[in-house]
Amino acid sequence: QMQLQESGPGLVKPSQTLSLTCTVSGDSITTRNYYWNWIRQPPGKGLEWMGAINYAGNTFYSPSLKSRTSISRDASKNQVTLQLNSVTPEDDAVYYCARAPGFGDGMDYWGEGTLVTVSS
Known about the structure:
- This protein has 120 residues and is an all-beta fold.
- Helices cover 0% and strands 49% of the residues.
- It has no helices and 11 strands.
- The protein has strands at residues 3-7, 11-12, 18-25, 35-41, 48-54, 59-61, 69-74, 79-84, 93-100, 109-110, 114-118.
- Strands 2, 4, 5, 6, 9, 10 and 11 form a 7-stranded mixed β-sheet that branches. Strands 1-3-8-7 form a 4-stranded antiparallel β-sheet, with no helix packed on it.
- Strand 7 and strand 8 (79-84) form a beta hairpin.
- It is globular and about 40 Å long.
- The protein starts with a strand and ends with a strand.
């Protein structure tokens, strides 16, 4: 059974780096054709796609966040990691990892999400 679980600190100070990990079970993150995405939802707002890493380790980023975002993976641990630099309170959101069958496809599996608050 496919499961995605986000983990990381719930509170980050302004200007610091937010780091979250998505641990995947039920399939390998190197399985051909799949994309592993990070998506966030600020309070009271819609979903925002942040970026993705695919089965081959290639990364893709939202143009609006590209300068501050890094997505990487540890295939030995079956984990995908998100780093967002120079955070501000505008980065308050629930952060989700999700799988897509291909780039631009709809997500077929989601983690439960983790709330991150940026505050001193």
